[in-house]
Amino acid sequence: MTRADILEAWGAHLAQGRRRSPHTVRAYVATAARLLDALGETDWNALARLGTGDLRRQLATRRGEGIGNVSAARELSALKGFLAFAREQAGRDAESRPRLRGPRVKKGLPRPVTPDEAVNLMLAVGEDASEPWIGARDRAVLFLLYGAGMRIAEALSLKGRAHPIGETLVVTGKGGKQRAVPVLPVVREAVSDYVTKCPWPLEPDKALFRGAKGGALSQGMVQRAMARARVMLGLPESATPHALRHSFATHLLGAGADLRSLQELLGHASLGSTQIYTKVDAATLLDVYRSAHPREAD
Q1: Residues 6+ apart with CB under 8 A from 213
Q2: What is the structure's pLDDT at 283?
Q3: pLDDT in tens, 183-196
Q4: CATH superfamily of 115-292
């Protein structure tokens, strides 16, 4: 058994057995790789014998490299999962894995943008783009995040067969769970405008949103486009693509949407994940929502 064999098996378990996102798989495999490099172990039985002290030392090493509480908590979660998997491979009880409490992570409130800021961001990415079709593409992606509450990974996973988009769109979220989200006319128009201008042919089994060379559009390209736009508009660093999804949620809740409906729209597995939005000033959100989300009067 080699290091590569172990990492390949762990990655396959996460992707196929646990249906984790590609981003999570990469992060968890990287965590396992660091542990293997530190210990020099390439045997399931040896990994299955690791205890709490080994986890604590590995976490201390990572702390020494400067990671914060949030990253440390994620690192510990990945290590625990990896060792549980190692115990299963070694024929041992996975539940008897080492116990170690992670650092406390204070859950901060989402920092939404206002409806006007959201619309201005969409306009800015269009104006800043190197080519008109790229501007239309980035604008369409942001409209899906703000107008339909989609995660950026969900928007970029759409295939050509999704077009033309109707009044609802079936989205595959975390854990492979599907949900139907309503799509406003202004959002559908933004996507259609991109498809019309895109120089690459629309193919049912290929990515709907394409990069400059025709491949699938990456999250990094969207994040960089929005970073440039927020600088142009003088917005804080918290104005990220994911902030648009937060804005979708907080504005709808402020307008009177109930938590259960919002949970379904966002694809949250737990209502607790949705309840964080109740801490935002509902009265203020109602006022800003009535003024624009997104252009209700259109």
Answers
A1: none
A2: 45
A3: 889 889 999 999 99
A4: Intergrase catalytic core (1.10.443.10)
Catalytic residue among 13, 97, 139, 245: 245
Question: Domains of the chain: which residue ranges?
Answer: 3-96, 115-292
- Angle CA(204)–CA(167)–CA(169) in degrees, nearest 5? 45
Contacts of 140 (CB under 8 A, 6+ apart): 190, 191, 193, 194, 209
Superfamily of domain 3-96: Tyrosine recombinase, N-terminal domain (1.10.150.130)
- Of 174, 197, 228, 290, which is the active-site residue? 174
Catalytic residue status for 151: yes
- Is 277 part of the annotated catalytic residue set? yes
Q: Rounded CA gap, 132 and 225, in Å?
A: 13
In angstroms, the CA 98 to CA 48 distance is 10
List 28, 146, 194, 277, catalytic entry: 277
246: annotated active-site residue: no
210-232 exposure pattern, b = at least 16 Cβ within 10 A, e = fewer: beeeeeebeeebbeebbeebbee
Q: Would you call 268 a catalytic residue per the annotation?
A: yes
b or e along 121-157 (b: 16 or more beta carbons within 10 Å of the residue's beta carbon)?
A: bbebbbebbeeebbbbbbbbbbbbbbbbbbbbebbbb
Point out the catalytic residue in the list 137, 179, 251, 268: 268
Per annotation, catalytic residue among 62, 97, 151, 230: 151
> Is 242 part of the annotated catalytic residue set?
yes
Tens of pLDDT, residues 63-116: 888 777 777 778 888 888 888 888 888 887 655 555 656 556 555 555 777 878
- 20 noted as active-site residue: no
